[in-house]
C-alpha cells in the first residue's frame, strides 16, 4: 500500500514539471533529490525500471516541445538517476539491516522475556515451596511435640508405680506376704503396660514413617474374626459378658495384612470389653458392593457424640471421667485407624450413651493379586518406569506404592505437593499419581507442572464418579479402592507418549533447563547434552536446539550434525547471538533459523 | 488429720498412702478433685497431695478452691504432675500451691519432705 502511494506521488510530479516549464525549469532540480529519497523506499525492481524509463522520457521532453535538445541533459538525468538507484540500493541495504537487527533485538528481547518469566516462575514456586515447607515442618514439629509429650506422660505413670512399689518393697521389711504379692503384681502389671506402650509407640512411628512392612494377601475376615474372638473369650467371660460372632457365610476375601487387621479387631474387642459391664459383644461383617464392612458392637457405656472423632486421636482416652478408669495408652484406636486407612478403608463409631457402641471399619474389595491379569510382555514394558505417588497420608502412599511396585513400576513417594515438585525436578518421572488434593490451588499447581513437564498426572479419588474425575484430572483418573487392573490400564494408555524428541546442546545448565521447560511445555521429550560429542543418537530427534556455545563450537556442532547420517536432516534451532550469514556457509537452509521457538515448535508438532 | 492424697491413679494412691501410714501418719485418699475438696473440708488435713491431671476438678482448680477457703487455706498443698514442664510450675505457684513435685517420685523423698513440713523428727 505504502509503495502504491509513493508511486502515485512520483507520477504526480510529472504534470507538476510540465506545468512549471519541463526539464528546463529550475523545478527539475527538485525532482532528483525527491527521486533519490523516494526510490530507496520503494525498493521494488518494477518501480525502479519505471523510474528509469520516466527519467529518460523526461529528459526528452524539451525536444518534443521544440526546445533545444541537449545530450548533456539526457546524460545528467540518466546519471543522476543511476546515482539515485545506487544510493537507494545502499539505503535499502541499510534499512534492511536495521530491520534485521531490530528483529534480532526483538527476538532476543522475546527470548529474554521468556527466560525471565521462567525464572520468575521458578522463583515463585521456590518461594512457595520454602514457605510451605516451613509451615509444614512447623506443623510436623507441633505434632511431634504433642506426641512426645503424650508419650512422656504415658510413660511416667507406670514408671512412677514401678518405682514407688519397688522402693517400698526394698525399704520396708515388715510387709506381710499378701501385700508383698499385691505390690509385686502391680509392678509386673505396670511393666507390662510399659512394654505395650513401647510397642504401640513403635507401631505408630513405623506406620507414620512408612517403615512398616505390609504383608498383603487375600484374607478371610471370618477367620480373622474367629481368631480375635477366641483370643478375647476368656477376658470377656471373666467380666460375665458374652462374645458372639455374626459373620455371614461366603464372605468374599479381601486384600490386606492379616495380622494388622487382627490387631484392629483385637483392639476393638478389648475396648468393647473394657467399657461393657454387662450384656454382649458381637463381632460381625457385612458384604457391601465395593467393600466389606466389619463391626464390633457392644452394650456398654457408649461414646458421647463430641468424642466420636476424638477417640481416634493419639492419647485420647475415654473413661477419664470414671474413677478407676480402664487402663490403656490411648493409642489403640489411633493405630487401628492408621492400619485401616492404609488399606484404603475407613473406621468410625456409632453410639448411644448408656445403650452401647458399634465400631465399624471397611476394607475395599477389588485389590486382586497382580499376577492374575498381568502378561509377561506388559511387565517388560512397565519395568523401570518411574511413578511418583503423592498423598499426605503415609499409609495410603504405602498402599499405592506397593500396588504399583507389584505391577513392576518403580515408585517414589511424596507427602506434599512441594516435595513432589522437588522430586519431579530431580528425577525423571513417567507419571504422577496423587490422592485427593487438599486444595484447589495445590491441585492447580501440580496440574500446571504436569502440563509444563509433559508428565501425565493421575488422580486417585474416593469420588467414585469417572466423569468428575476426568474433568479435573489431566491424564487419567483412578478410583478408590485401588484396583491394580485399573491403574495398569490407565497409566499404560498414557505413558508411552508419541511425542517428538528434542535434543538440546548446551553447556549452560540454566539455559538448557529453560529450553527444556519451553519445549517440554508443548509435550516434547527432551534430551540435554553438554556438547556435540556427547550426542549418542541412534534414531534422529525431531529437532535439535543449539544453545549459546562459542562460535567455533557452533560451527563444529553444525558440521557434525550435518555430516552425521542420523542427524543429517533434523531441523536445527540456533540461539540468536550467532550471525545468520555466517551459518549459511555450513549448509543450513533459511527455514531453520531466525524463527521464534514457538513457530518452530508448531512446525515440529505438524511433523510429529 | 495429717494427710489427704488426691489422685485418680489408683497405684499412686495406694503407694503414697501405704508409705505414709507406715510412717505413722493419718492418711485419707480421694480419686478426683471434687471428692478431694469434699474430704478436705470435712477432715481439714495439714498436707494435701493434689494430682494435676484429674477428672471432674483438676489439680489447679482444686488448689485454688482450697486456698480460697478460710478453713483450708493453711493446708500445705503439694501439686503432683506427670509432666515436668515449666508452665505447670508457674501455674502451680499462681494457684497458691506450696510445693510442686513431678512424677515419678520416690516414697522416701516424700516421707522426708513431710517430716520437715510437719516438724516431726525421725
Q: How would a crystallographer describe the biggest sheet of chain B?
A: 5 strands, parallel
Largest interface: A-B, 25 and 26 residues
Q: Strand-residue fraction of chain B? A: 15-25%
Number of strands of chain A: 16
Structural class call of chain A reads alpha/beta
Number of helices of chain B: 5
Report mean pLDDT of chain A, rounded to a whole number: 72
Please give the number of β-strands of chain B: 5
Write down the Rg of chain A.
41 Å
Structural description of this entry:
The complex is a heterodimer of chains A (608) and B (122). With 608 residues, chain A is α/β, with parallel strands linked by helices. In chain A, 55% of the residues lie in helices and 14% in strands. Chain A has helices spanning 2-19, 28-42, 45-64, 71-171, 177-209, 221-238, 258-274, 332-342, 376-382, 394-406, 417-426, 440-453, 466-472, 484-494, 509-521, 551-563, 580-584, 597-607; strands at residues 216-219, 242-246, 254-257, 280-287, 291-297, 347-352, 356-364, 386-390, 410-414, 431-434, 457-461, 476-479, 501-505, 525-529, 543-546, 572-574. In chain A, strands 2-4-5-7-6 form a five-stranded mixed β-sheet. In chain A, α15 (509-521) links the parallel β13 (501-505) and β14 (525-529). The longest helix of chain A has 101 residues, at 71-171. Chain A is rod-shaped, with a radius of gyration of 41 Å. Mean pLDDT of chain A is 72; it is low at 320-325, 367-381, 463-475, 494-498 and 576-596. With 122 residues, chain B is an alpha/beta fold. In chain B, 44% of the residues lie in helices and 19% in strands. Chain B is built from five helices and five strands; from the N terminus they run βαβαβαβαβα. Chain B has helices at 10-22, 33-43, 59-67, 86-94, 107-118; strands at 3-6, 27-30, 47-51, 76-81, 99-102. A five-stranded parallel β-sheet of chain B has the order 2-1-3-4-5, sandwiched between helices. The longest helix of chain B has 13 residues, at 10-22. Chain B is globular and about 30 Å long. Chain B starts with a strand and ends with a helix. The model of chain B has no long low-confidence stretch (mean pLDDT 85). The chains are: A alpha/beta (608), B alpha/beta (122).
Amino acid at each position: 500500500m505504502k509503495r502504491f502511494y509513493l508511486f502515485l506521488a512520483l507520477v504526480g510530479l510529472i504534470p507538476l514539471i510540465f506545468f512549471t516549464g519541463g526539464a528546463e525549469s529550475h523545478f527539475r532540480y527538485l525532482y532528483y533529490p525527491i527521486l533519490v529519497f523516494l526510490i530507496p523506499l520503494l525498493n521494488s525492481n518494477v518501480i525502479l525500471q519505471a523510474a528509469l524509463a520516466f527519467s529518460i522520457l523526461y529528459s526528452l521532453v524539451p525536444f518534443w516541445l521544440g526546445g533545444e535538445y541537449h545530450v548533456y541533459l539526457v546524460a545528467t538525468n540518466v546519471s543522476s538517476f543511476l546515482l539515485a538507484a545506487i544510493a537507494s540500493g545502499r539505503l535499502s541495504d541499510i534499512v534492511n539491516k536495521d530491520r534485521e537487527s531490530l528483529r534480532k533485538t526483538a527476538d532476543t528481547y522475546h527470548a529474554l522475556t521468556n527466560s525471565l518469566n521462567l525464572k520468575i516462575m521458578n522463583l515463585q514456586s521456590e518461594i512457595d515451596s520454602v514457605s510451605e515447607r516451613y509451615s509444614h515442618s512447623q506443623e510436623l514439629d507441633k505434632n511431634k511435640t504433642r506426641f512426645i509429650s503424650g508419650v512422656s506422660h504415658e510413660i511416667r505413670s507406670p514408671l512412677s508405680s514401678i518405682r514407688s512399689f519397688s522402693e517400698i518393697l526394698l525399704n520396708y521389711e515388715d510387709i506381710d506376704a499378701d501385700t508383698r504379692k499385691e505390690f509385686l503384681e502391680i509392678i509386673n502389671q505396670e511393666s507390662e503396660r510399659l512394654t505395650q506402650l513401647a510397642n504401640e509407640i513403635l507401631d505408630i512411628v513405623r506406620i507414620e514413617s512408612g517403615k512398616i512392612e505390609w504383608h498383603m494377601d487375600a484374607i478371610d475376615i471370618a477367620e480373622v474374626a474367629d481368631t480375635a474372638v477366641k483370643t478375647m473369650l476368656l477376658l470377656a467371660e471373666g467380666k460375665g459378658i458374652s462374645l458372639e460372632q455374626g459373620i455371614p457365610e461366603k464372605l468374599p476375601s479381601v486384600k490386606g495384612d492379616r495380622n494388622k487387621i487382627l490387631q484392629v479387631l483385637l483392639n476393638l474387642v478389648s475396648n468393647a470389653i473394657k467399657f461393657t459391664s454387662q450384656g454382649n459383644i458381637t463381632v460381625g461383617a457385612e458384604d457391601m458392593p465395593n467393600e466389606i464392612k466389619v463391626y464390633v458392637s457392644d452394650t456398654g457405656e457408649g461414646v458421647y457424640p463430641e468424642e466420636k472423632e476424638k477417640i481416634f486421636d493419639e492419647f485420647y482416652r475415654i473413661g477419664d471421667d470414671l474413677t478407676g478408669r480402664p487402663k490403656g495408652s490411648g493409642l489403640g484406636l489411633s493405630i487401628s485407624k492408621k492400619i485401616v486407612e492404609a488399606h484404603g478403608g475407613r473406621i468410625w463409631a456409632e453410639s448411644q450413651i448408656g445403650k452401647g457402641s458399634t465400631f465399624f471399619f471397611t476394607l475395599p474389595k477389588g485389590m486382586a493379586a497382580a499376577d492374575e491379569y498381568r502378561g509377561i510382555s506388559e511387565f517388560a514394558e512397565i519395568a523401570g518406569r518411574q511413578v511418583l505417588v503423592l498423598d499426605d497420608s503415609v499409609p495410603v502412599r504405602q498402599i499405592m506404592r506397593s500396588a504399583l511396585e507389584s505391577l513392576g513400576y518403580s515408585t517414589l513417594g511424596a507427602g506434599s505437593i512441594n516435595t513432589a515438585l522437588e522430586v519431579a525436578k530431580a528425577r525423571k518421572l513417567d507419571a504422577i499419581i496423587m490422592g485427593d488434593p487438599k486444595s484447589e490451588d495445590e491441585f492447580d499447581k501440580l496440574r500446571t507442572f504436569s502440563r509444563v513437564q509433559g508428565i501425565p498426572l493421575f488422580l486417585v479419588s474416593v469420588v467414585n464418579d469417572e466423569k468428575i474425575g476426568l474433568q479435573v484430572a489431566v491424564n487419567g483418573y483412578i478410583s478408590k479402592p485401588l484396583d491394580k487392573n485399573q491403574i495398569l490400564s490407565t497409566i499404560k494408555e498414557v505413558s508411552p507418549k508419541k511425542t517428538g524428541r528434542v535434543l538440546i546442546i548446551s553447556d549452560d545448565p540454566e539455559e538448557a533447563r529453560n529450553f527444556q521447560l519451553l519445549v517440554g511445555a508443548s509435550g516434547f521429550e527432551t534430551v540435554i547434552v553438554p556438547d556435540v560429542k556427547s550426542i549418542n543418537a541412534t534414531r534422529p530427534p525431531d529437532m535439535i536446539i543449539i544453545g549459546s556455545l562459542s562460535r567455533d563450537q557452533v560451527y563444529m556442532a553444525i558440521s557434525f550434525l550435518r555430516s552425521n547420517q542420523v542427524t543429517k536432516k533434523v531441523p536445527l534451532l540456533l540461539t540468536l547471538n550467532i550471525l545468520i550469514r555466517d551459518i549459511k556457509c555450513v549448509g543450513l537452509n533459511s527455514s531453520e533459523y531466525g524463527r521464534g521457538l514457538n513457530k518452530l515448535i508448531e512446525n515440529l508438532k505438524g511433523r510429529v | 488429720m495429717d494427710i489427704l492424697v488426691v489422685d485418680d491413679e489408683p497405684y499412686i494412691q495406694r503407694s503414697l498412702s501405704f508409705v505414709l501410714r507406715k510412717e505413722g501418719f493419718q492418711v485419707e485418699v480421694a480419686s478426683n478433685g471434687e471428692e478431694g475438696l469434699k474430704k478436705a473440708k470435712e477432715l481439714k488435713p495439714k498436707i494435701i497431695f493434689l494430682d494435676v491431671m484429674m477428672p471432674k476438678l483438676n489439680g489447679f482448680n482444686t488448689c485454688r478452691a482450697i486456698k480460697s477457703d478460710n478453713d483450708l487455706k493453711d493446708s500445705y498443698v503439694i501439686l503432683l504432675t506427670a509432666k515436668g514442664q515449666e508452665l505447670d510450675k508457674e501455674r502451680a505457684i499462681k494457684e497458691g500451691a506450696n510445693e510442686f513435685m513431678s512424677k515419678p517420685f520416690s516414697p522416701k523423698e516424700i516421707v522426708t519432705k513431710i517430716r520437715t513440713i510437719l516438724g516431726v523428727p525421725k
